[in-house]
Amino acid sequence: MKIALIAHDKKKQDIINFSNAYKHVLKDHHLFATGTTGKQITEQTGLSIHRFQSGPIGGDQQIGAKIANNEMDVVIFFRDPLTAQPHEPDVSALMRLCDVHLIPLATNLAAAEIVIRALARGDFDWREIVKQSGQEGTD
Question: Which sequence positions are flagged as catalytic?
Answer without folding.
Answer: 60
